[in-house]
Amino acid sequence: MWNASISTRACQVFFFIIILQIPLFRVPCRSGTCTCPLQVTAAQLVTSKAAPSLLVKLLLYPGACVQTIFTEFTFPRWSNILEKYNLTNAATIQSLELNRLELLIGSYFAVAGAVAGLLKPGRMSLFGVLLLVWGLIREGLFDKSGKQASVYMSPLMVLAVVCAFLSVKYDSEKVQRLVRPTARPLKSSAKTKLR
Q1: Residue 186 included in any domain
Q2: Scanning 59, 95, 100, 189, which has the fewest C-beta atoms within 10 Å of its C-beta?
Q3: What residue intervals traverse the membrane (predicted)?
Q4: Strand pairing class (25-29; 152-153)
């Protein structure tokens, strides 16, 4: 069915956008400047010790490979992944994410939705991307510091939003029933018979 193939392809593209760390925005975070939801999530996971460093390295390694292949023409060393992203001393830096809660939660949902979307397409990635967009817009609108904008949204965010929207799997038969309800004959009542 065409609907299932579109949502499957959109989930795959969204997964590669997240895992390969395509720059979607620029925000200050614990590790310096984060440019994708995976970096925000990894910085928070490392500092809160909610996940083992092996899992964080496993998530960051594909994007690190792509970045170093294009810049240095080599593969990064597994042992230096956390140093590459400046996550070894991230726990000592004061938290900026609590002021940007939409960005943090949106990043969590986007990463979890990208991974879970490979198994079963769902709404988690769309919810995460919409939270990210709202958080970035809110930061841009309500930033009264007058300094140079510390938050930037890349035009590639549109691609992430479209892929997250298309990854939601809709039941087309259910939608058709809601749009075109079947006509039912009127039941005759006692009042109509009297007239």
Answers
A1: no
A2: 189
A3: 108-137, 149-168
A4: antiparallel
Q: Which helix (H) or strand (E) holds 152?
A: strand 152-153
Query: Is residue 189 one of the residues assigned to a domain?
Result: no
pTM of the model: 0.78
Q: Give residues with Cβ within 8 angstroms of 76, minimum separation 6.
A: 61, 64, 65, 68, 84
Q: Which two tokens stand for residue 190?
A: 């006692």
Pinpoint the alpha helices (H) of the chain: 2-19, 37-48, 53-72, 81-84, 101-119, 124-142, 157-166, 172-179, 190-194
Q: Which amino acid is residue 176, in one-letter code?
A: Q
User: What range defines the domain where residue 10 resides?
Assistant: 2-168
- The letter for the amino acid at 151 is V
- On whether residue 7 sits in a domain, the answer given is yes
pLDDT tens for each residue of 69-108: 888 888 888 888 888 888 776 555 555 555 678 888 999 9
Sheet holding 25-29, edge to edge: 32-34, 25-29, 152-153
Q: Which two tokens stand for residue 24?
A: 């979607």
Beta carbons within 8 Å of 120's beta carbon, 6+ residues apart? none
Q: From CA 17, how far away is CA 62, in angstroms rounded?
A: 11
Q: Is residue 80 part of a domain?
A: yes
